[in-house]
Amino acid sequence: MQTQLGNAAFPRLLRRSLSYIPSILYSLHSLLNLFHFFRFLSNSSPQSQKHKEMASPFLSNTTISFSSSLSSSSLPRIAPSIPFSSIRSNSTPRRILTVRSKIREIFMPALSSTMTEGKIVSWVKSEGDVLSKGESVVVVESDKADMDVETFYDGILAAIVVGEGETAPVGAAIGILAETEDEIAEAKAKAASKSGASTPSAPPPAPAPGAASTPGPPKSTPAPAAPTVAEGPRKTVATPFAKKLAKQHKVDIESVVGTGPYGRITPEDIEAAAGLSPSKKNVGLAVVVETKPAAPAKAPAASAAPSSLPPPVPGSTVVPFTTMQAAVSKNMVESLSVPTFRVGYPVTTDALDALYEKVKPKGVTMTALLAKAAAMALAQHPLVNSSCKDGKSFTYNSNINIAVAVAINGGLITPVLQDADKLDLYLLSQKWKELVEKARAKQLQPQEYNSGTFTLSNLGMFGVDRFDAILPPGQGAIMAVGASKPTVVADADGFFSVKNKMLVNVTADHRIIYGADLAAFLQTFSKIVENPESLTL
Amino acid sequence: MHSTLSFSQATTVPTTNYAFHSQSPINLRFCGLRREAFGISILTRSSSGRVRLSTRGRSKRTSASTGNNGTPPKSFDYDLIIIGAGVGGHGAALHAVEKGLKTAIIEGDVVGGTCVNRGCVPSKALLAVSGRMRELQSEHHMKALGLQVSAAGYDRQGVADHANNLASKIRSNLTNSMKALGVDILTGFGTIVGPQKVKYGKVGFTDNVVTAKDIIIATGSVPFVPKGIEVDGKTVITSDHALKLEFVPDWIAIVGSGYIGLEFSDVYTALGSEVTFIEALDQLMPGFDPEISKLAQRVLINPRKIDYHTGVFATKITPARDGKPVIVELTDAKTKEHKDTLEVDAALIATGRAPFTYGLGLENINVVTQRGFVPVDERMRVIDANGNLVPHLYCIGDANGKMMLAHAASAQGISVVEQVTGRDHVLNHLSVPAACFTHPEISMVGLTEPQAREKAEKEGFEISVAKTSFKANTKALAENEGEGLAKLIYRPDNGEILGVHIFGLHAADLIHEASNAVALGTRIQDIRFAVHAHPTLSEVLDELFKSAKVEREALEALKVG
């Protein structure tokens, strides 16, 4: 690593100010402000000590210098104190060329870890100027700051490849440096071939790492797919972030088939085209991808989706899960590891319905009645209220907490009626009302939705006559309640009558709860519902 | 309203020049932001004008006004009547009561005006949410602090409710504060029927006529919508609709990159939208100090899911309908040729604000508005068509267009009350701070660097610029928010502060040390000895003042003095 002692660069940096590498500016300012800091921290506290330490390396390294030679590795030279030097070496394409020449290219340096391209603010030197090592040649604007770029070699600025105001990707040649006057002509020819081949906005590094920007085959592929969303020829529509990503990953946006609304190209389309697994992150991805230059080459076509899933139907919309939906999804997948079985039971509800009519004016809901009935049955069958935490033991719960599944806008949550066996029906109803309000407002506290020991799910109000529920992880059983319907029944003496019957179906963890256990529990539950007076006690 | 919604952006509030500038010596050296309000084109009244516009037009103007027009009444119902209960009117009313004036305020819509109901207040609620979302979504930021957060999400209705609840709360606070002090709140649209005489009333009811010794017009402004743009309130919206946050589009075009556009881009990108800015001038954020806007672009635009078209007008915007997206036609600002067509999910029109002065009855007192603005002198006294002052009539806030900021309106109102109670007062608009509540925030007071240079050249003095970075500030680094810059423009010969611009964490709160210094005429050589608690963000300004180089003579003078 070469170090440049450029005193001149210090005020220069200052003028341009701003932010790019925290440590440098930090130390820069600490230098500036040491005086003030010492006023505050007159005792030599660790902080002021730190300032001194950080300031000193800065003095010797001043500014970023960068240049490289065709005959040597094109790795940028960066003053040793700059922390991201390792990132840099990964993200710049290495070249091994056999040409021996004293003509050197000046490359677009990476001035920050997130920089992918830079804009030439101004050329300090013009073509034909004689440069000496350490002199500023060009001012580059990165995503974070304006920086002077110095040369490491003596020579003559033979040609400017990327003019002022133009942009070039990191690593691209922006100027040509000749060692002697004799070589200027050769250098100019070289520059001409470079600038001729590249667009002014983004000259790609000559032996570009085969990104998807290669024109040709990919371009022809999207044509047949396009008409599915749009009639006739139309221009490419890409969202702002999609455009940014395409630039970052060097994806030719014209070669991508849009799957977004109105056939537009979405960030996901670009990620698919670049062979990335879709990700929410944007910053940081660049670094990951560029270290593997082979990756983009594999997937130039949009259809080469990384997963085995069929490609989305054009025009479909992808809506990511909300936090709640993500939690539901996770729980449902987890539930697959539990061996469950189901037992159904018809329950006559005429008495319960009559009771409900009686207590309804007092604010009692059917949910509260069912929860209370289940809780009372569970009190007699503690096994059904237990759970299997480790696959080796029973965990008997000391409380009977009935979780009740509630659909709320775009989600599902299970507010918990704690100690449902102990609370009376009216308190339970009151409590339930509060919980539902809180759930709607998304203000439930964790213990109000995750402390359940048994779950109740009722779809009866929709006219569902029977269904089965998935056992939530951590519980022993869940009860699925269908609608109560008038049903013709024959009694022991052969007399027909019409009774309201409701089908309940319990799903349970067979590691701890067996068929007979569940049957017994359901029998008790049925008795309580058929003789519901005890519920009001 | 704070800075936010009151501010017009270049493309829009239409005008060629201040026509009344020549008529009287108005102090037009206002803050740089003002400058951008003089734009192009001709005022076309927006289609978004609320009911108020039409009702006023229809209301009869006969009964009270004809007979004794021109002869002011001898005794008055009130000492002061304020037309419009926005932040400006409210500030004036409170100060008037304090000064012992019998005061009434006329409001035809809701108390609080734009700022409280459709402007800076609800937008701050949305920005509070967007700031937190942004933080929680920034894995890098969280990791640096050692925090772990699983996927952050939001509930759109919950966010919208927060904004709405905040507006209602502030509205009731304003109403209560006026009621408690004995300000009469008269409901209806106020119209001036003659000198010192106002009528007000609701549509369909008989008008009441009241008299007052002095009258303040404080009717504010409405979003300005250039012609060719069809606002449907669903997919093509103004800030009025956007603040209700009825939906969060995947992709929204924001027309105008001034305060309003910038703040909404912050909200929408934090909530997951992608944004395309459409700016008529060649640069984004044209109203700010160039250095600040350059940095702001690096932080607020480039790394976010935002792209932009500059130097173009959105000449035609069609709302989404018949299975088609919102279509935006872009026309080159210079060549006037069609340049591009965008297809987006929604478009927000943030092209500034137009004064709401139509139907005020100004013709009854021979006042002609300038592109809708009420012409005033530096004491907010209304100027009539002949260039003469209209006695006992003042206009404050967005309606006079001097500085379209809520707190400027309030300050102007207080200034007027001072005058009518016998103490001459001229508000120094260069001391009024402005802020944009993005993350991080932008704030400023006084002149931008180009303005200061122009002034220095004209008046023959030198200026210097000092800068400090948030990166050297302990508190900012503790918050892991070191991105930011404070910039001071000053006169090295006497230490006068000409302008201060801040971009960084809590910039909007930090600016007041500078704006107070400007208002009180404090010089750098004095303020640099003021002590700041350590470690606080205010040390950014402390360092700024300390890094300024004031010439020896000024310092000597200080010692002697």
TrEMBL record, chain A:
PANTHER family on file: DIHYDROLIPOAMIDE ACETYL/SUCCINYL-TRANSFERASE-RELATED, DIHYDROLIPOYLLYSINE-RESIDUE ACETYLTRANSFERASE COMPONENT 4 OF PYRUVATE DEHYDROGENASE COMPLEX, CHLOROPLASTIC
Xref: Pfam families: 2-oxoacid_dh (PF00198), Biotin_lipoyl (PF00364), E3_binding (PF02817)
Domain Lipoyl-binding, residue spans: 103-181
SUPFAM superfamilies: CoA-dependent acyltransferases, Peripheral subunit-binding domain of 2-oxo acid dehydrogenase complex, Single hybrid motif
Keyword presence, Acyltransferase: yes
Protein name, as recorded: Dihydrolipoamide acetyltransferase component of pyruvate dehydrogenase complex
EC primary class: transferase
Ranges of Low complexity composition bias in the record: 190-200
GO biological process: pyruvate decarboxylation to acetyl-CoA
GO cellular component: chloroplast envelope; chloroplast thylakoid; pyruvate dehydrogenase complex
Residues of the signal peptide: none
Pro residues bias: start-end ranges: 215-225
Lineage: Eukaryota, Viridiplantae, Streptophyta, Embryophyta, Tracheophyta
PROSITE patterns, A to Z: BIOTINYL_LIPOYL, LIPOYL, PSBD
Organism from which the protein derives: Gossypium darwinii (Darwin's cotton)
Domain called Peripheral subunit-binding (PSBD): residue spans: 237-274
Domain of life: Eukaryota
Enzyme Commission number, as recorded: 2.3.1.-
Keyword Transit peptide: yes
Region (Disordered): 187-235
Automatic annotation (TrEMBL), chain B:
Cofactors named for this entry: FAD
Subcellular location: Plastid, Chloroplast stroma
GO MF term set: dihydrolipoyl dehydrogenase (NADH) activity; flavin adenine dinucleotide binding
Active-site residue numbers: H534
Residue ranges constituting the FAD/NAD(P)-binding domain according to the UniProt record: 78-413
Region of interest (Disordered), residue spans: 51-71
GO cellular component, one term: mitochondrion
Enzyme class: oxidoreductase
Record flagged with keyword Transit peptide: yes
Binding note for cofactor: Binds 1 FAD per subunit.
Record-listed E.C. numbers: 1.8.1.4
Assembly notes: Homodimer. Part of the plastidial pyruvate dehydrogenase complex (PDC) containing multiple copies of three enzymatic components: pyruvate dehydrogenase (E1), dihydrolipoamide acetyltransferase (E2) and lipoamide dehydrogenase (E3).
Protein name according to UniProt: dihydrolipoyl dehydrogenase
Organism: Gossypium raimondii (Peruvian cotton)
